Amino acid sequence: MEDTAAAMSRRLLPDDVVREILIRVSTDKAALFRCATACKRWRGLVADSSFLLRCWPEGASSLLGFFDLPKGHMQVATGRPLLFIPPPAAGSSVFGAQPRPLASIIRGTAPDGLLDGAVPEVAHGGLLLVRLLRGDYIKSVHLAVCDPLAGTCTVLPTIRCKAERATFSILAGADFPSSKGGQQRERQTSPSNGTPSFKVLAIVGDDLDIDKRKYNLYMFSSTQPRWSRPRKCFRKHGYHVQGRCAAVCHGVARWLVRYLNDENHVHKCYTYDVSAETGHHWLTKLSIPPSQLRIGGFRGAHTLSVDANGLLSLLSIYKKVDIWRLDIWTRQTNVGSDKWLLVKVLDLKPPRPGWDPLRLDMWSGEKSGTLLIQDEYRCVHRINVETRTMVKEQFQNGLSVLAVPVEIDWASLVFISVRLNMSQTTATLQDKDGAM
Fold it and tell me: Fewer CB in 10 Å around end: N or C, the chain?
């Protein structure tokens, strides 16, 4: 059938005409997948990097869903399976329209029970970092990198240290400055297990008491067999790393850090920056007065993010008098400049009269433009920056504070799927030839 389709397409239409037809088909992703599996010629056209860039511009992403613990099992020692939760408006998702265990996506590449009780830590570039329920949780850190699209799981060496608090970052593909254009998709299928090269950064705090806590930085590369030696993050006490993960921008992982004075008031704000390529790390003071950031208050949420243009942003949602407000700051890209500009101040329209949560959690998409907040009642709301409205998202049972959003680069997904299909077809033909 494949040979027949290829022969007919060669007789009837040249490549450039077929390519234009496929461009129009690409508005329906499922239809494009079916076309890519019709024959080898069409697969080659779809997998071409120039075709993918025409369909989906570089950096175009959308929210794939969340990885989260089951409702009522937010404690790390429950042993319950980690779930994929599709977004309510997704209709059909790459992993299905219903919640499903991560272990059912990572089939055959992880030992039975390995992911039971695992906690999602951070997702980036299509990879998910989870902390495994192994050993003494306070005296060691056990991690694994999962590639849901490739269906693979890589267990990392153990970090043996006192770990009262830990925050992580994962970098892959185009995050490495040395990679050239187009290499990101090639890297996706280069390793033997189908998982791209990656680096994991871990910041581990050794004490629950902020006044006594010391932070150490650990680095791991998939091309090396072990973690780096621990390096002290800060020269003195008083620094507090905000959030569970970093924002990744131009090959640098950046954490939001506040410095507390002797009265435990926020005195200064910084980003703690780590270069994935060189391992160099440094503190950068924010050119924003802490009073304007309103960091340290109980009611509100703050997070570093990367917008659709690849710019580092700081999102801050808080209540001023009786109005909920969203401030969006953007770091200027001038060489040698660390100046931040307040680009938007939005007075938000509450989802209902009397909405006045005591606690908020915020999730910001890497490049999809998705901005979600959740109140203490597990109600999730999507913020529309253009209309300044909050729209309730009907997640089944809500999301926990440990939920991690996963975005997808559609061009990379198509490339991987087409390449895997081509590899499987080649292997099948080789098996048939061998049998003959």
Answer: C
